[in-house]
Structures
1.
Amino acid sequence: MTLGELKQAAASCGLKPFVGAQLADWLYAKRATSWDRMVNISKAAKEALQEKYDLGISRPVGSSISTDGTKKYLFEVHPATGKVPAADMKKGLSEGMADGNGAGGPACKKEYIEAVMIPEEDRKTLCVSSQAGCKMGCKFCMTGRHGFHGQLDAADILNQFLSIDEAADLTNTVFMGMGEPLDNYDAVARAIEVLTAPWGFAWSPKRITVSTIGVLPTLKRYLDEQRCHLAVSLHNPFPEERLEMMPAQKAWDIRDVLDLIRQYDFTGQRRVSFEYTMFAGFNDDKRHADALIRLLRGLECRVNLIRFHRIPDFPYDCASDAAMEAFRDRLNNHQILCTIRSSRGEDILAACGMLAGQHTSAD
């Protein structure tokens, strides 16, 4: 809930609006996970609120830790298969969804999503999921193979921030987990509002990056409404070859995506980057590097080269280190900033393209 909605919730229980501000402080600034922690709210006020509302916070149902310190969390959710009203926290909705009859569409059944906490010396970044599964069907991505199983609401998204062990220490987030964020833009935008508002987490938009395959209708809304960074999944500069791996290329041509992006300023606080997964013998040679240089010429941007992590029944392997370094150097020599992203969490299936919401323990 936004600050205004929290004040309305307080008013609906016969409480003063300042109780709504207290709730925002406890939920978002102090990361309170229980009513008991809210010590400056009276017992009677908390009892009145609990009659009508739920905090919406649920602990992960599992976790695993990589040898490199990366930690993957598993969450149980009940996503709606239709359009979900953003962040309705009432108990009746929660109970209805648990029964498979939640608002937003039928067949709201139990699903599992994953989020990944990536520690570095001076930061802790959360790679957050925005959908259960994904509609985009990229052939090299385990999430895409998982299929689409419903939209997360803002509460599901924010719960990934609030319920993990590192909640108080998170410094950054990337919307690069399960799902296409701009296919669930309303919920993602509401989560970003909570993350950046002074009554919320009070994060700078510079600490948030949203990834997209290039969903044009909502990409324009995102660029108009948000100041967060943008990351575009590109992976091949030739449209016909990109289509082989990424069916969404048929709906939203990467050239049209770039035409839109060029209408916005990325020379100041907001950055645009392009994600490029390297496949041996498919997109890792000089021809592809030169085509990428032509495609991005004149655009202030960064290209992140990503090592492909092998998945079953897929014909390609990762490009060699030598090929990746040559590709990087060629782009840098043509004034396109290019880096090779460090691979994190591969041993626990937490690296790029490996999230599938797998739940192995007994229900």
2.
Amino acid sequence: MLLSGALAALAAALCWTLASFCWRRLPISLGAAELNLLKNALGLALLLPLQLLVWQPLPTTAWLLLGASGVLGIAAGDSLFFAALRRLGTRTTLTIEAAAPVVTTLAGLAVLAEGPGPAQLLGLGLVSAAVVMVAQCQQSDGAAWGHQPGWRQGVLLALLAVLCASGGALLSRQVLAAQLISPWQAASLRLGAATLAQLPLAPGLLAVARAGVGPRPPRRRWPWVLLATLLGTTLGIALQQAALAQLPVGQAMTLMATAPTMAVLLAPLDRDQPGFTGLLAALLAAFGVWMVVR
């Protein structure tokens, strides 16, 4: 179970990294919240047929906790993440998101009594150090990183996204640790709650779609939308639930925070130059992850 949970967490990180890259390249006039509603509705539509095979009854408490997890972690957290992604880029946003394991581990210790051992604490410290290194790298690259338009707002949005993601994972872990539930069903319930919470944004989404704001892009957008939704929403959230069902919440979130390491490989395609310090930080984060799972 520990091995399969670790593999599920790493696979979820890979899916989210690729999905972030797709969303970043997507020419679209929607705001962050409307874009989040679009991908949640599409992801829910893709997951619903599977419910005929895996659906099972759950107590009311499980419904409420998974619903709250979806609203906090997906409706609010992903909207904040998209807003930060547009201001900071893929690698920087994902690196700030690497602070989530520290927040989630402390919350898991306080709420679920899931305390990490010495090796896990060292791994969390290394991941946190990698976040600081990347920030120092960006500030010393001579690009006036801290003075770019929207930078401060982007950092604040990314940190709020960390809090929402950690809270959503903690709520989901409470259900998955106590109930025998399919990851697909858990993902569907979370997506359903997130979509319902964002329904007031639907008229604005439809208005933008009908108006066709902005020039027509030179390439079709729907393949990118579909690919990003399949990777980040449908498959990524299901893998996240599988990892949370089999690992303590802090360890699962640490493994899923390896996205910055994977994002370094995509940096040239995103017109980003991580440099030597960025590569070193990614390796340090990878070593921290190894300390957590060894």
3.
Amino acid sequence: MTQLSPAGINAIQDIAQRHGFSFEAVQSMLISVINGNGSMAQFSHYEFGGSGQWMQGGMTMIGDMFNNNLKGRVDNLCAELSRLIANQPDLMRTGSFQSQTQNGNTSYNSFGGSSGDNTNPNSLFVAAPAQANWWGPDLKWPNSSGGQNGMRYAWFSQAHRLAMEINGQVIIYDTLDHNIGGVSQQSGSNSASFSSQYGYVDLQQLPVISINGQPPLAPAPPPMPSYAPSDSSHAQSSFASPNQVATSTGGHHDIFASLEKLAALQSRGILSDQEYASKKAELLSRL
């Protein structure tokens, strides 16, 4: 388990003493500022007035919203931790740190492979081995990770990615707008269930970004329907074209108009009954 280095312990002890917070509280805020890439933090600790957030440039919110003195102390603490992180270039390359609470004690794990000097005496954290970065080089700073029984997971909030390793196969999912806040795993199972602000997260509904570092294969297109020649000829003979329909409809309209004219001519005496009957029969035969 990777923890604070001796230099990191000394730095946190000094900062805690000068700002009037406990070592544990400052250590938890350090992780929050690291998860915010050094420019922001979301935290929850009773010494900081409960839940709150800090953003570089002066925006600080705490649960004890009317305690301006505490708000100023939290702002000063976060600003100093931000400067401390900025002076740790190796830290920014090594990956991320996860807080785990066990029996009320908080410890921190590092999840990135280091590309810097692992023996740097001024490094805040003891460097993790390179093989710890099992999700690949493109992702850093997981908000949470864990696993057991042949399964591991790591969630990256800012990158909107969820990495899952099951029996050696690593799958990277796009978490879309899910803000994953919980994970559960049944004892003896190699699968995990995740929850977000929308409830249960169905991994089958999430886009797959890569499998073992490679883009997923696109599904094969469905086969085109085929028709036998007899079916095609039958379909052509069974349905009239739009032009044929229009021509047929127009012809019927002309015949009915001619019949109306014939009836008008007969009523005026211009056509005899015999002439009217003969012409009418001729027109009706065209229908």
